[in-house]
Amino acid sequence: MDERIEVSVLIDFYGNLLTDKQNKIMNLYYNEDFSLKEISEITNTTRQAVYDIIKRCHKLLVQYESKLQIMNKDLELKKAKKQLIDRLNKLKSRQSDELYDNIEEIKQYVIDNI
Amino acid sequence: MDERIEVSVLIDFYGNLLTDKQNKIMNLYYNEDFSLKEISEITNTTRQAVYDIIKRCHKLLVQYESKLQIMNKDLELKKAKKQLIDRLNKLKSRQSDELYDNIEEIKQYVIDNI
């Protein structure tokens, strides 16, 4: 995943663990694409302080993900959901005599992955 | 959920955000059912300090859950998984002429809930 997009997703998952000010600055920088200078003016904070906050919070978000894996588990779940929908579409197009085994297979997939 | 069980589950989800010592004390207290006195001896910490750590970490874990909702989302997902398996079992026992609609219904359930 592109680093900028990854941080943006991490903000969605872990932003609540940041302070309101940190959260605001991270959103302005990563989601609304403001420059350090613009953020400095909007938040009435020095450019250097904005830079430091972004750097520190980026590190914090990566640490939270390494400890809790919410983003990673969400990606895995999205993959499982897609797989499940694909399997149900496949099942719909098949002959009904194969149905029983196919459904068992999907159930096993749910048990193992969801 | 019983409070003791709830804290035990919260330790599973958020224990990595605690320090090693905090994590150890919380596990000894909530998962292995040791007394404050026993934990004090095992960890070479005063009984009062053990008590304070348990109280502070309990509060921390509840705060993490209120901000991230990992436990709550996991419970919802477990419910959805059970629902999905129930629906597949039902589908298996039905006549095949109802099959198409039933599968569409399950797909919609996956789209809305997983």
TrEMBL record, chains A, B:
Entry keywords, A to Z: DNA-binding
MF GO annotations: DNA binding
Gene3D superfamilies: Winged helix-like DNA-binding domain superfamily/Winged helix DNA-binding domain
Pfam families to which the protein is assigned, alphabetical: UPF0122 (PF04297)
Function: Might take part in the signal recognition particle (SRP) pathway. This is inferred from the conservation of its genetic proximity to ftsY/ffh. May be a regulatory protein.
NCBIfam families registered for this protein in UniProt: PRK00118.2-2, YlxM
Similarity comment: Belongs to the UPF0122 family.
Protein name: UPF0122 protein GCM10008906_07670
Organism: Clostridium oceanicum
